[in-house]
Amino acid sequence: MSATPSKEPSVPGTSSLREQRRVVMATIVGTTVEWYDFFIYAAAAGLVFADLFFKPAGTQFAQILSFITVGISFLFRPVGAFIAGHLGDRYGRRVVLMLTLVMMGVATTLVGVLPTHTTIGLAAPILLILLRILQGVSAGGEWGGAALLAVEHAPKHKRGLFGAGPQVGVPLGLLLASGVMALMAQIAPGEAFHTWGWRVPFLFSVVLIGVGYYIRRRVEESPVYEEIAERQHQAQMPIVQLFRKHSPLVLVAALVFAGNNAVGYMTTGGYIQRYATDPKGPLALETSPVLWAVTGSAVTWLISTAVAGWASDHLGRRTTYIVGWVLQLVGVLSLFPLVNTGNIGLLFLGLAILTIGLGFTYGPQASLYTELFPASIRFSGVSISYALGAILGGAFAPTIAQALVQATGGTSAVTWYLAGMTAVGLLATLILRDRSGIPLGPDHEAEQSEGYFQGQKPAYASAPAN
C-alpha cells in the first residue's frame, strides 16, 4: 500500500460544507426524479395498464400480467448493478449517476407516448415491457452511486444523516408520482384519465430529468474514489473480487433490503391502489382519494426515513434497524384491517403506520451498505446487494399479493407473507455486526474486508459517533 500523500482530500468528511450540502441536494433530487419515473409506472400498472395493454388476456389475468411487468424490471436490476458497479469502481460514482438519470428519463417519456393494444396490437405490450426493462437497468445502477456519493462525502459522525439523502428521494418520488397521478385523476376523471390523463405524468418526466441533470453535473466526485484513482487502486475486475471474497455478505445484505422492499411495494408497486379502487373488488373506492391517501403516507415515510438516518448516527445502524423491524411488523399487522374498512381516513392511517416502520428499515441503508464493503469494490457491492434484495423482496410482491387474494378470497394470506418477509429482514440484520464509524478510505481495505458478521473479530474500533 503506497504512502499517504501530503494532502488528504479523500478523507471522508473533508469536503467543504458547501459541497456537502450540494451533494445531499443532488442525491435527493436525483433519486426523487429516478423513483418518480419508476413509481408512476407502478401506479399506472395498478390503474390502467391491464385494460390498455393486456385486456385480451381476460380481466383477472390481465391485472396479474400488468403487475408482472412491474416485477420484470427487477430481474434486470442486477444487469444495471453489474454494469454500474464495474463503471463506478473503475471510473467513478458521478459519471454513472449521470448515465442512469438520462436512461430512466428516456424510457419513462417513451411510455407516455406509447400506443395501446387497441392501436398496434401485440406490439404494444412488448414495447411496454422493453421500456420497463430499460427502467430496471437504470434503477439497478442509480441507487449505489447516489448512496456512495452521499456517504463518502459525509463526516464520520453524520454518515447516517447524509446517507438518508438518497433514501428520502424514494418517498419523495412516491409523493410526487402519487400527487401528479391524483391531480390528473381530478383534472381528467373517469374515461378521460383512462384515455389520456395517465400519460401526462410520464411526459412530465422530461422537465424533471432536466432539473436533475443540471444539479448532478455540478457535484464533485466522491473523495474516496478520488483517492483510489490518485493511487491507481481501482480493482480490475471488481465484480469477480466481490463474489470470490464476499458472496455471503452480498446475500445477507440483500436479505436485509428484501425484508423492507416486499412490504414497501404494497404501495410503491401499485397493489394497494389497485386493491382499493378495483370496481369489482370488495372496496371499489374512487381513484383520486386513494391516490391522495398514498401521497399523504409518502410524507410520513419521508419523515421517518430522515429520522432513522439521523438516529443511526447515535444508536448505530443495527439497533436502528431492529427498532424498525418491530415497527414494520406492527404496520403489517394493522394494514389490511384498516384498509378493509373502506374508509379513506383509516386507509391513510394504515399506510401511515406502515410507512413509519418502512422508514426505519430504509433510512440507514445507504450508510449500512457503504460501511459493509471494501473501498475498491464498494460500488459493485452496494449496487448488486441492493438489486438482488429488490428481486427477492419487491419484484413480484404485488403479483404475489394479487394471486393470494384471488386464491383465498381475503387478505390474511398477504399479511402473513409480509410478516414473513419482515422476519427475514430482522434475522439478516441480527447476523450483521454494526460497523458504524469504520474508516472508508482505501488505506483501510484490510479492516473493511473482515469483521462484518456477528462472532467475527473486527479489525477496527467501532462505535457510533455522538
Automatic annotation (TrEMBL):
Q: Which InterPro entries match?
A: MFS, MFS_dom, MFS_trans_sf, Sugar_transporter_CS
Does this entry carry the keyword Transmembrane? yes
Keywords carried by this UniProt record: Cell membrane, Membrane, Transmembrane, Transmembrane helix, Transport
| GO molecular function terms attached to this record | transmembrane transporter activity
A GO CC annotation recorded here is: plasma membrane
Q: Where is the Major facilitator superfamily (MFS) profile domain?
A: 23-437
Task: Give the stretches traversing the membrane.
Answer: 23-49, 61-83, 95-114, 126-149, 161-184, 196-215, 249-272, 292-312, 319-338, 344-363, 384-407, 413-432
Provide the protein's localization.
Answer: Cell membrane
Chief localization: membrane
Membrane-topology annotation of the record: Multi-pass membrane protein
- Which stretches does the entry tag as region Disordered? 443-466
Keyword Signal attached: no
Name of the protein: MFS transporter
